[in-house]
Amino acid sequence: MKFTFMHMADTHLGFRQYGHTEREWDFDDAFRWAIDQAVAKQVDFVLLAGDLFQSGSNLQAITFNNAVTHLEHLREAGIPCLVIEGNHDLPPYRAYQTRFGWVRALAETNRLIYLLDATPLEVGAEPVPASDASRVGHYTEPIPGVPIYGIGFNGAATRMVLERFEKFVSEQPAHNPDYAILMMHTGVDGRARERASGNISVSSMRGLRSQFDYVALGHYHMKFDEDNWLFNPGSLELTSQDLAHEETGGIYLVTVDTEAVPKHRVEHVACPRRSFVHKAFSLARTNGPDELYDQIEEFLFGEQEKGAFDTNDKRPVLSIVLAGTSRFEPGLVDTQHIEELGRRILNPLLCRIANRALPPGIAAFNEATDMSRRDLEEQVLEGLFESHPDFSKDLTHWTNTALEVMDAGLKQGTADGICNILGNARTALTG
């Protein structure tokens, strides 16, 4: 048996990021791009692993209408779309008991959209398929012999739900499907910088490995995969500047041949998106406002010379954060002048300047909401190296080296690889 499918997640339609209308349309453009990819590739079905909408409690009519319009292209192409609810899709509390939210409303429009929710399944239960007669079910088979189960967002109850579902699956009569898929809206420990009570560990999923060939994830917005089995495509558009330096999210195009080993080939396609230019400047290494302006201007011209925006009609989003314990009074910095520099050099759609620097003599960690995690890590490392006489004179060099080592560790780099990074860093200084 051979077939293809597309896996996407976290489209967040209706997200008016930074209160800007054009950012809301960016998310709509990204969703339309994904739908166009599915139609162009003539996939057999589409998986949407949660968070179709930004808000299940405050959805605008135009957002719902646009979703219907885009999904109509799938229906016209005869491509079913199988969906689970993410935390952003869930209806307001008073309607939660009925679970009748906007995603279910889409399914009820009879547009080849099927909402899957296997959360209540337990040993002894009879699974109900989603079909043309009933658009909501525990599972569905878009192709005979290819069962697809879905488990939406369950927060802190995720582990309990997963254990119950595993027991349910283990008790099912052996029917040896050709290819089985599980969709889930949850994070995975060790594969996301955030840790939350709703995360699962890879080890907790091992009992399902023999039952499912492909686990389609959504929830966290960075792309990752595990052991050619767990796949998280990342959000189509950038939902936070914290992810600006991560690998671009997009879609998975999966080609299945049940006679081959392995059964599938998976290609990740990055979604074209508006560029984000984000940089934090530490005032701990700056002697005054004029020196800071020169540093920022040099950075902006460097971004301009990269030509990253030449192939994209969309103007970038510019975000500059001033951080660290300053050598001078941070209030002397003219943020309006910095914004004028940004607009003159890069002509961005948005220019966001945040002065989070601390006055001289205040040695405190500033966990600013406008700083990305990367910037916070850089700030902490700078503080550590600055206090050590062997490293303070080459502060930037050793800070960047430490960040490179940390990245290698997160990406499961080898000990030899990390030693090479440190060796190269030392050689760069000593020759």
From TrEMBL:
InterPro entries: Calcineurin-like_PHP (IPR004843), DNA_Repair-Maintenance_Comp (IPR050535), Metallo-depent_PP-like (IPR029052), Mre11_N (IPR041796)
UniProt domain Calcineurin-like phosphoesterase: residue ranges: 4-221
Pfam families: Metallophos
Record key words, sorted: Exonuclease, Hydrolase, Nuclease
Gene Ontology MF annotations: exonuclease activity
Domain of life of the organism encoding this protein: Bacteria
CDD domains in the record: MPP_Mre11_N
PANTHER family, per database record: COMPONENT OF ATP-DEPENDENT DSDNA EXONUCLEASE, NUCLEASE SBCCD SUBUNIT D
Record-given protein name: Nuclease SbcCD subunit D
